Amino acid sequence: MLFQIYGDNAGWQLLGWLLVFAGLVLVNELARRTKKGGIFCLMVIPAALTVYFIAIYAGAANGAEWALNNPTYVHMNSWFHYAKLYAATAGCIGFMMIKYKWKFGKADWFKVFPFIIVAVNILIAVASDFESGIKGAMALAEYGDRWWLSSENVWLYGGWWNWVNGIAGILNILCMTGWWGIYASKDRKDMLWPDMTWCFIIAYDLWNFEYTYNNLPTHAWYCGLALLLAPTFANALWNKGGWIQNRANTLALWCMFAQVFPMFQDTSRFATIPVLYADGFMDAATRPASANPVMQGVVALLALGANVICLAVIIKRSKQQKKNPYKNEIFTDQKDYQLAIARAEK
């Protein structure tokens, strides 16, 4: 088992997961199906939140109690959360520029933007994984265990799994093929990347889940499982080729929610922790006495293995087809690709 879901609270934890999953699927549909919905969800709301965040930090700098005690300021102050929120939002806006052909979104050179922004998002997470690995090693030298307390008062357990998963993330960047194979759908609801088929999606989902499991353990039940499965679910059933747009939309929207309402994951009846916390709880004031990092290691190896296999398949296909896998699409024989390209505006 990956998470501690049992006892009287299990029903609430499962309900919370279903609410997050269904909510992300539905809000993504609102953002992708209409131009007004996309502008409101991915431009207006982030702009308003930026004003809110600036007000909180300005208030805190001046010693205002309302700001110093604000949940966003107390629980979501890591550099990672802000970097992820704005990188994901930048991706969403860029994808809208492509599908609606706004300004240079119609230019051929801009087709490489999706690769760049996804690579940046992956590298942000890789840096965070490596940071945890380093701080875990420092804690081992100082305290005899690998526990270190983050700026958000969450005990993290850094070890070799962080390094393995960080390497998997770097390989995952190399698994993105057909950089210029980017299209707007005929109905203008989606930006499509047809060559990003199930091969990449599985490798990405395993890597990113392990990232959240390592570095956002108290949130991974939601930002790991629910958040990753929502875009994968949509891509599998009705939005072929639109996975990366689904992923960016749901990631940005979730980051906005989590940044403003962190207590949903942290202290409410919906809070869920992984088996890592062998003491059965996570309390910033109490250094954990024991740890169960087995699943961190297992999933890290699975993530690395999936990305190695995916990259090996890409290399084999590129040699067989005598194509550069980044300038050209190489999964054109797969059903996923064919269903996606049929939706594309040429």
TrEMBL record:
One matching Pfam family, short form? DUF5692
Q: Decide whether keyword ATP-binding is in the record.
A: no
Classify the source by domain of life.
Bacteria
* Chain segments annotated as transmembrane: 12-31, 38-59, 79-98, 110-128, 160-184, 191-207, 219-239, 251-277, 297-315
What are the protein's UniProt keywords?
A: Membrane, Transmembrane, Transmembrane helix
The answer to whether UniProt assigns keyword Ribosomal protein to this entry is no
Q: State what protein this is by name.
A: Uncharacterized protein
Provenance organism: Extibacter muris
Q: What is the lineage of its organism?
A: Bacteria, Bacillati, Bacillota, Clostridia, Lachnospirales
